[in-house]
Amino acid sequence: MDIGNLYRRAESAHQLDGPSIGIQRRILGAVDSTPTTRKIADALRGSLVGHPLHPALVTVPAGAWTASVIFDFFVREPETARRLIALGLITTPPVLMTGWLDWSERSDTARRVGLVHAAANGVGIMSFIASYRLRACETGGLRSARLLSLIGLTAVSVGGALGGHIVFRLMDASTSV
After folding, report:
1. CA–CA gap between residue 151 and residue 75 (Å, rounded)
2. Beta carbons of 58 and 95 less than 8 angstroms apart
3. What contacts 150, CB < 8 A, 6 or more positions away?
4. Where along the chain do its domains lie?
5. Across 5-119, where does the E strand assignment appear?
């Protein structure tokens, strides 16, 4: 996979502009509706620490899911892997909230890449949910659960690369393209 090509294709995916504008309006409308929601949104955006919280919060589920694959394939402790998957899933909602808030303030180009970032992470999250549920089955779906974890980790890794591109390459793009 040529990751540079993925970046360029996501940046130029103008067909994402309509959904992007609609989602952005809903987010900004929800957070700007009252002084209380504005204060909460500002805190979630990182006003208390002086920078966005999303990149720091991502480390918990990403680290838990990476460790789960290590415990599955190298340490051979599927119950520990299942617990790590659960930790990643439990810590995902604040990551999603802060990510969407950050996304809503970006340029058109960054929001396009952000939608692809969100889609990749969505595939990853759903794969880890399915892996977690399979591990609870008494019929022994461990092989499939492990495969789903690998798919999930691959998807969130691609999502992370896209997120890094937004932060390190497109953050200065304050004007819409």
Report:
1. 19
2. yes
3. 69
4. 15-170
5. none
Structural tokens at position 166: 């937004």
Distance CA 26, CA 29 (A): 5
For 99-127, the pLDDT digits (tens) are: 999 999 999 999 999 999 999 999 999 99
Q: How far apart are CA 159 and CA 123, in angstroms?
A: 9
Which tokens sit at 174?
Answer: 């304050």
pLDDT in tens, 66-84: 999 999 999 999 999 999 9
Among 101, 60, 86, residue whose Cα is nearest residue 149: 86
Whether the model pTM is above 0.70 = yes
- Residue pair 118/103 in contact by the 8 Å Cβ criterion: yes
